[in-house]
Amino acid sequence: MMSRINLVTNEQANAQQLELFNAIEQQLGMVPNFLKVFANSPAALQAFIGLHSIANEGDLEGKTKERIALGLAEQNACQYCVSAHTAIGKKAGLSSDEILANRSGTSQDAKAAVAVKFARSLAQNNGEVSTAELLEIRNAGYSDAEIVEIITHVGMNLLTNILGKASRVEIDFPKVDLQKAS
Length: 182
Description:
Elements: H1 15-28, H2 33-38, H3 42-56, H4 62-75, H5 79-91, H6 96-103, H7 110-124, H8 131-139, H9 144-167
Helix pairs in contact: 3-9, 4-5, 4-6, 4-7, 4-9, 7-8, 7-9
């Protein structure tokens, strides 16, 4: 299946796009196809890289960021994102059982389960979470900084889920089927 939006190749790339590709390759060892779609607009790619690097600093545990990405990718039926974050999640130290739990909206880790559930509620309700949900995430031990980071991750993952689905970008990670037909 071909991407419905152009994938910028190294051959097509201008100086700015090549510079971004080089930076991505140094970090990831490859330039994933979805970033080649983003590269149609170097400004959009740069904004995404900026958001991604900000989101990767922060207080939220790395594994929990991947758990959230998996929970949202499955909820939003983005097969590219489920496949990508299954590979990235394994690299981050998530077990296969944990990845399946995350895709179902939970976690084997009690604290992380609350974060995944909260993230999916944020996405499903366009941010209209209840006071009870905010109390639950605070009671699980998350600070306001971490809550804001969860919200940022939700926004970033919705962006990539939407891009992946709109472009139908070819999956360049080991392919993982969605749990339920979308």
